[in-house]
Design goal:
binds iron/sulfur cluster, alpha/beta, two-stranded antiparallel ribbon, about 45% helix, TIM Barrel, 15 helices
């Protein structure tokens, strides 16, 4: 409830020119290095071979812009390759309002990941911060290989199973994450069944063009939007997730609903709010700051004193308006909080489902 009130107050604040809210969530890709070769990402080839350092984190986080951060998403590249990762997290834990850290890893370096996540989890617990961990699992065996370009399924699954079998040891909460692309769209049910068998919670997202991971020029190769059969297969899968009675997680159901409608609208329907449109920030391994990771241009490079100035400059805020106008309606990133239109659409969908269940069973076949 408190979070909702904060959100509404921030949103109201954002309406007043000159009174911009401070970011509450930071996307923090801390390295341009990766040991995977995913078909949906060109970080290994095109991102700078650089890691974030403790000194840079310390310098950046001292700026007022970050004083209200409540949540930080750590990703990369592959964050477990960053030697100083536990020390970087320890530095982030000094932020006064921080409540949660979420880290995404490919799970390939099993021993290293288990060792550092255990340490990070302990540090987070000591500060009362929730540490959630997500390991990418785009498929089983050869499908995994087709998606990730490396044959490390057994290592990733060892990491996942060890974390799942030891709840509370490596993180406060865990999920596997599957990115849906042309490489795995025909195998999602098998992925789901495998995870159900081993009690692995798994969430699904769409592979889409994303500036941060340098894949803007070749989305035809991987996006299910560019092949009608693949788009329909993905729609059917997400529809199944929405109406799955075993799932009571309404937030998750909304995300699947937003993805389903996005696919149905061929990439031109957005039913979720995006906090990066009006409040939140992204900082990369070089200390460059952006609005969102998906589409934003680099706004500037942080030097410890200039973050607020860059983030809230008139020139950059004008640019953000352009970004919203050009891109947000065609974007499915960060689709976890409904817009007003999204909330009504979702509600209406379920009302319809309850009142006319047979129509939906038939409708599912026609998509
Ligand atoms: S382009 Fe996407 S991620 Fe970026 S601000 Fe818009 S909706 Fe959010």
């Amino acid at each position: 409830m408190m979070q909702l009130i904060t959100l509404i107050l921030d949103k109201l604040l954002a309406l007043f020119p000159g009174l911009q809210p401070y970011p509450r969530v930071l996307q923090f890709p801390i390295t341009g290095r990766c040991n995977s070769k995913c078909g949906t990402c060109s970080v290994p080839e095109l991102a700078p071979d650089v890691d974030m350092t403790i000194e840079r984190v310390r310098q950046i986080m001292q700026n007022d812009l970050f004083k209200k951060l409540q949540a930080i998403g750590i990703n990369g590249g592959e964050p477990s390759l960053v030697k100083e990762l536990p020390a970087i997290i320890a530095e982030l834990l000094c932020l006064p309002k921080l409540k949660s850290i979420h880290m995404i890893t490919n799970g390939m370096l099993t021993e290293r990941i288990l060792e550092i996540t255990k340490e990070i989890n302990e540090s987070c617990k000591a500060k009362g911060v929730h540490f959630s961990l997500s390991v990418s699992l785009d498929g089983i065996e050869e499908v995994y290989w087709a998606c990730r370009g490396v044959s490390s399924f057994s290592k990733t699954i060892d990491t996942i199973k060890t974390v799942v079998e030891n709840p509370g040891t490596y993180c406060s909460s865990f999920s596997a994450g599957c990115t849906v692309s042309k490489y795995n769209v025909d195998h999602l049910a098998a992925n789901d069944a495998y995870c159900a068998e081993y009690n692995i919670p798994i969430f699904y997202r769409l592979a889409v063009p994303n500036r941060r991971i340098y894949n803007m020029g070749y989305s035809d190769d991987f996006s299910v939007l560019t092949d009608d059969a693949d788009r329909r297969t993905a729609m059917e899968f997400f529809f199944g997730k929405i109406v799955d009675r075993r799932c009571r997680d309404w937030k998750q159901k909304f995300t699947y609903y937003a993805i389903f409608k996005y696919l149905e609208g061929k990439g031109h329907v957005r039913l979720a709010d995006c906090f990066w449109k009006w409040r939140d920030a992204t900082v990369d391994e070089l200390g460059n700051i952006y609005y969102c990771a998906t589409e934003s241009k680099c706004l500037g490079t942080l030097d410890g004193s200039n973050a607020t100035e860059i983030f809230h400059s008139k020139e950059n805020l004008d640019y953000r308006k352009e970004l919203i106008k050009e891109h947000c309606e065609h974007c499915i990133h960060y689709a976890f909080f409904p817009s007003i239109k999204g909330a009504f659409s979702f509600l209406f969908f379920f009302l319809h489902l309850v009142l006319f269940p047979a129509r939906y069973q038939m409708g599912r076949r026609f998509h």
